[in-house]
Write a structure and sequence with these properties.
44% helix; mainly alpha; elongated; 94 residues
Amino acid sequence: MCRRFCLLTSFMQSCKCVHPLFLESNNIYDIRACELDSAVDYACVSDVTTDLDQGIRNCSCHVDCHEVDYALTLSTSSWPSVPFKVNSLSCIMC
């Protein structure tokens, strides 16, 4: 959330607009969406993003107090499985 707010603030300060992905659907603050098909807006958004990625701009977001890391696993199975078939048949016969 901190990085999102930092990006939003940086776009507003530097570009006087906000990347369309950051606009809320209700847009209660009447913020202009950056027109990414405009060379000027696109260049500004690109520069801000690059500056943040390269550390030229600093967000000073602190490490979260609580973080969950999930291990990536991959598994496969046949569908439908034998237990599913047995269970389905027993429910049909009930």
